[in-house]
Amino acid sequence: MGLSAGISADDNPRMRIAVIGDIHANLPALRAVLEDVEKIGADALYCVGDVVGRGPHPNEVVDELRRLEIPTVQGNWDEAIGMDREQTGSTWSSSDGEAAGDASLRWSAETLTEENRSWLRQLPATLRMTMGGRSVLLFHGSPLRANEYLWADRPSRVFARLASDEADDLLCFGHTHEAWHRVVGQAHFVACGSVGCGTEGDARARYAVVYIGEPDIAVGFRAVDYDHVGVVRDMSAHGLSVDLLREPPAQHPFVSAAADQ
Q1: pLDDT tens digits, 179-207
Q2: Are 192 and 207 in contact (CB under 8 A)?
Q3: Which secondary structure element, helix H or strand E, spans residue 255, and what is its range?
């Protein structure tokens, strides 16, 4: 690729950063996004986790990220598969969805090479850096828990508390598969969407582009077409439920209600 996978220097006041996440072992979606990132001329690219799980190409996706040396944080699926857990910590909307997710977890753990599972295990939970004079924090679910959902409709006080605790200008994350940008005080929260999992009727791969300038931060989102039919065919060939690529994470009412107090 023609871009720098990740940078930590603070000498460029104007930067265009691509943030991807929730690839979920979907290689055609990842490759389509990588091509789009290069096309728009991003200065750097980061991944906020859930590299594997759900989809049919776990080794291929990990190999691609490793080859390009894309800085990546650990998602809850990455940790569960890397550590051979029995559950991912995800919340499902139905028992059928949970059963399909558990089957994908087992299949992914059995399919991944030990070298790639080791790579998943060593991924950091968070990445903090300075870009364009701004403090940037990357994580998967929340700074404290990879499986916490920062939904768009969470109360402002939740984000204000996070902004106060972390004191960063820009916080980028995934896990919910939502794509949105919210400013709370001086902090910009960016949910980057999902590369590998679309929604019902829209299979496109989504990611975020953050423009760090003087004096403002601006955020845009891109949706990219890819060979979704081929991925569905690969899912079926491995006995994986095709619903895993379009079923969104579910909100657990008790967990969310307690956390929002």
Answers
A1: 999 999 999 999 999 999 998 889 999 99
A2: yes
A3: helix 253-259
Band (pLDDT 50/70/90 cuts) for residue 13 is: low
Query: Is residue 120 a contact partner of residue 62, using CB atoms and an 8 Å limit?
Result: yes
Contact 113, 152 (CB under 8 A): no
Domains in the chain: boundaries: 15-259
Residue type, 247: E
CA–CA gap between residue 226 and residue 62 (Å, rounded) = 19
CA distances from 171 to 198, 219, 247 (A): 23, 12, 25
Percent of the chain with pLDDT over 70: 91
- Asked: is 15-259 a CATH 3.60.21.10 domain? The reply is yes
Count of beta carbons in the 10 Å neighbourhood of residue 67: 10
